[in-house]
Amino acid sequence: MAEHLYELLSPHLPSTEANLSKDPPTIQYLNRLPTLSLQALQTTEPQSLAQSAHSNLLSLQALSNRSHKSFITSADSLSNLHSSIANLKRQAQELRDGIPKLDEEAVRFSSKYSRAAENATLEQRKKVMRLSRNVDRISDILELPTLLATTVSSAAANSGNTGTSFSTTYSAALDLYAHIKRLQTLYPDSPLVNDVAAQAEDAMKDMTSNLITALRAQNLRLAAGMRTVGWLRRVAPELDAAIGEGGASNGGGALGATFLICRLANLVSTLEALDPLRELADQETQRRTRGSDQKSGTGSWTAGHQTEKYLKRYIEIFREQSFAVVSLYKNIFTPDQSETDATAPGLRGIDARTKTAQSSQTDRRLDPFQCLPPALATFPTHLVQLLTGTLRTYLPNIQDKTARESLLTQVLYCAASLGRLGGDFSMILTELGDTGDEGTEGFASEWEEVMRKHRALAGRLEQLTGANPTSPTGSSKGTLQATSLAAS
Predict the structure, then answer these.
(1) N or C: which end of the chain has fewer CB within 10 A?
(2) How far is residue 176's CA from residue 274's CA, in Å, rounded to a whole number?
(3) pLDDT (tens digit, 9 = 90+) per residue, 152-203?
């Protein structure tokens, strides 16, 4: 029925609508028309169609107002659909052509970075990853030389303090250095650890210099000296190496000699503080020599008071400092009995060195420095040379016999004080009168007179102390006690 109606109505329909004959809504509407009456077709159907058209128009307007952007986008996409399909086809072709090449690269990558075989790239990557994981530890290791140098500098700045902070700072520096050396032992082939160890060695050299400088300090006490020497033994063990026969201990080795040199430098600097008095004594020496050349007593020097002041102060400092140096050395380095016997600069030191030389003739062929005498064996001799040289130069300026005897007595007490440590040089002073220098002709007789008076005083002191003069042992002990008491 619908087909017959469509054939009747097709001449009156537009061409666009004629193409919609197969449209389901069109067929449905044509099937509905025969069911309507003629009156309905003439009256209500046109109104219903107009109302439906108006409702559809409003719906289209609302839809276009609400979704116009989507319409525009869809229209654009629809217009570009042809070119998009062409591009998609081309890209699909390229992807299909690239799959074999991608497969080849994947196979090559798998074979190159396989864990089954050794690969330098993988090893390098492992090292980089390991470095990334241990960057904090490496940073701590790199900071060790800076921390050590800072600790050493802080200890040097606080070296004048007598508290525990000075000791704690140096102990912390030594602990850091020991930790670095332990790292070097664990990782001997690591360039980083070797570089850190080299920087630590430089810091330890500075610390060694600071400790050696500390040994030259004024009024060095036994505790500070032992502490400083102990640190030097840890920092520079080569200084404490044995130099004696067969590797035996020889008075502290080079460390003992360094200690004596530092204390000698302190003694010399202390004596140099007497330069104003020495200059006055030199002026009196010049006046004495001019007066001796002119053979005239008028206008020449007669007193020598400035020389007396200089020598008195010089002997006081020499006595105090020389006794302190030798005493500190003996207490710090604790030499054995053979070295104690060798400390006397006269006969015992020569005998000990002779025995050492005879017993090590074979070792001398290998290393001649193995037979060097202990540092303390020759040190008192050098001290005595300083004192005798000063006495030989300035003692002739003093013409007052009482003043000369007072100075010689002071020198005798100094010899007795040093003699308590094995360095008595009283007999060496008798040789000053045999040098032929002007003004020292009667020095030997004056020295003998002083010695005679001193022995008489020692005899009286022996009686006071209750010693038995008939016993040789008691006499020698009493003489030592009297000498020590008089020297004090």
Answers:
(1) C
(2) 44
(3) 888 877 765 544 556 778 888 889 999 999 999 999 998 999 999 999 999 9
Q: What are phi and psi of 406, to 5 degrees?
A: -65, -45
pLDDT of 347 reads 30
Segment 46-83, tens digit of pLDDT:
888 889 899 999 998 898 888 888 888 888 888 888 88
Q: Which residue has the tokens 């040097």?
A: 156
Listing DSSP states for 295-307 in one string gives T--TTS----HHH
Give me the numbers of helices (H) and strands (E) for the chain, helices first please. 22, 0
Closest CA to 153 of 206, 81, 193, 226: 206
Whole-angstrom distance, CA of residue 413 vs CA of residue 59 = 135
Q: Each residue of 431-473: pLDDT tens digit?
A: 665 544 555 555 666 667 777 776 777 677 677 776 444 444 3
Tell me the C-alpha distance between 398 and 318, whole Å: 20
* Beta strand ranges found along 128-206 (DSSP E): none
For the purposes of burial, counting CB atoms within 10 Å of the CB of 309, is it exposed (0-12), middle (13-18) or buried (19 or more)?
middle
Tokens of 329: 């050395």
Q: Are 9 and 18 in contact (CB under 8 A)?
A: no
Alpha helices in 215-367 (DSSP H): 222-235, 253-272, 275-294, 305-333, 337-341, 347-359, 361-366
What is the three-class DSSP state of 68? helix
